[in-house]
Design brief:
Elements lengths: L1 E2 L7 E10 L7 E17 L3 E16 L6 E15 L9 E12 L4 E12 L9 E3 L1 H10 L4 H9 L9 H12 L1 H10 L1 E3 L3 H15 L7 H11 L10
Helix pairs in contact: 1-3, 3-4, 5-6
Length: 239
């Protein structure tokens, strides 16, 4: 297991694995095809992120027999990397890829696999993908931003009533239970307040109140009267 330190930006890891092929009776004559594919998943903890999985090596080769028979072979190279949560802007943007690799025949039934694995943060989407959230949720996130995106999402994913928490985290968690992907997208791409019907009435009321000089016969006065008739109170309008 390797643990990263310092800011995360295109971190590279050397790959080295000697693979012994024992499934065939004849020796390796020549490699005809090689593939190395990462299969890595993210495990999010409160103070760290673990990237675990394997690099899947696929080989096609001809043996040294009389008929140069074609063979297929597969081998998994284990991967386990630990990253402090404080190093990552957003854990949901982490990704890993093979930057380059080489497979070389070493002896009759051995191959050496070398290369570079790169871990990086993908670019975020444009701010046009902002998520609309209820006012109380946006206010709660604003107050808890100091924790960082990774810590907030780890807190949501590993919620425990026994852990010390705040009223704001309770608010975020209640919304997270119904809309987990909305919270994740909001923390990645940004968010804005979702207008309620009351917000829309208040905005229209303020517009009419600012442009009409005849307050008694203005649309704003009509709005107040209608709300009073319906016994509906809206702060900033008739309350």
């Amino acid at each position: 297991m390797e643990t990263l330190q310092g800011p995360l930006k295109d971190v590279r890891f050397d790959i080295y694995e000697r693979v012994q092929i024992e499934e065939v009776s004849e020796n390796i004559f020549a490699l005809t095809k090689t593939e190395l594919t990462p299969h890595i998943k993210m495990l999010m903890r409160k103070d760290e992120i673990q990237l675990v999985g394997y690099l899947q090596l696929k080989l096609s080769y001809k043996d040294s027999g009389r008929f140069l028979m074609q063979h297929e072979y597969q081998h998994n190279i284990p991967v386990e990397i630990k990253i402090p949560a404080s190093r990552v802007t957003d854990a949901y943007l982490l990704d890993a890829d093979i930057e380059n690799f080489n497979v070389e025949v070493m002896g009759s039934r051995n191959v050496n696999v070398t290369g570079v694995l790169i871990v990086y943060e993908k670019e975020t989407k444009t701010m046009s993908d902002k998520v609309k959230l209820p006012r109380e949720v946006t206010e709660a996130i604003d107050k808890m931003k100091y924790m960082g995106v990774v810590s907030i999402m780890a807190n949501m994913a590993h919620w425990s009533e026994e852990d010390p928490t705040t009223e704001e985290l309770y608010t975020i968690h209640d919304y997270y239970l119904k809309n987990p992907y909305m919270i994740a997208q909001a923390l990645v791409n940004g968010y804005e307040i979702e207008e309620t019907p009351e917000d829309k009435v208040r905005e229209y009321y303020n517009q009419q109140n600012s442009i009409c000089t005849d307050r008694q016969h203005s649309p704003a006065n009509a709005i107040r009267n209608v709300l009073n008739f319906l016994e509906i109170k809206i702060e900033g309008v008739n309350a």
